[in-house]
């Protein structure tokens, strides 16, 4: 015999106020995602500039072949940043579009899909933050070890 709690049979209803808040959230999320795509394009443009003219400028600055390598490394770095930036922006955009359609159609499945994209957005940003914090911690340990070794 299965015991079902009251929460398992509970159906969530969105009030008009909640729908209005969600519609406003979707508008701002879409705006932020579009701005994110613009910055993504700028990152890619800068990466291409570093691959072409940046390498030449650095090479002519007296760095020689090392300057060309530095330009390519900077270009690769910017492409990696752009790639990492793409996913959270895409998830945010999909959340905004699907939430707007879900509210317009009163479609619960589409609303669930939109929240799935919002979850993916926050999950990606959270994992990325953990990685960045780990890199900071490792860098700090290396610096402390270097200072201790030099004493």
UniProtKB/TrEMBL annotation:
Keywords: Membrane, Transmembrane, Transmembrane helix. The keyword Transmembrane applies. It comes from the Bacteria. The chain crosses the membrane at residues 31-51, 63-87, 124-149. This is DUF5362 domain-containing protein. It comes from Flavobacterium rhizosphaerae.
């Amino acid at each position: 015999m299965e015991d079902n709690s009251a929460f398992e049979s509970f159906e969530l209803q969105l009030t008009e106020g909640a729908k209005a808040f969600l519609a406003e959230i979707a508008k701002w999320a879409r705006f932020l995602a579009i701005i994110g795509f613009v910055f993504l394009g700028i990152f890619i443009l800068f990466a291409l500039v570093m691959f072409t003219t940046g390498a030449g400028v650095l090479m002519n600055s007296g760095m020689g072949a090392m300057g060309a390598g530095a330009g390519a490394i900077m270009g690769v770095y910017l492409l990696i940043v752009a790639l990492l930036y793409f996913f959270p922006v895409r998830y945010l955009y999909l959340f905004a579009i699907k939430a707007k359609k879900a509210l317009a159609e009163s479609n619960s499945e589409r609303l669930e899909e939109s929240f799935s994209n919002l979850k993916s957005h926050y999950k990606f940003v959270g994992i990325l933050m953990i990685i960045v914090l780990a890199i900071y911690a490792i860098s700090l340990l290396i610096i402390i070890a270097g200072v201790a070794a030099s004493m």
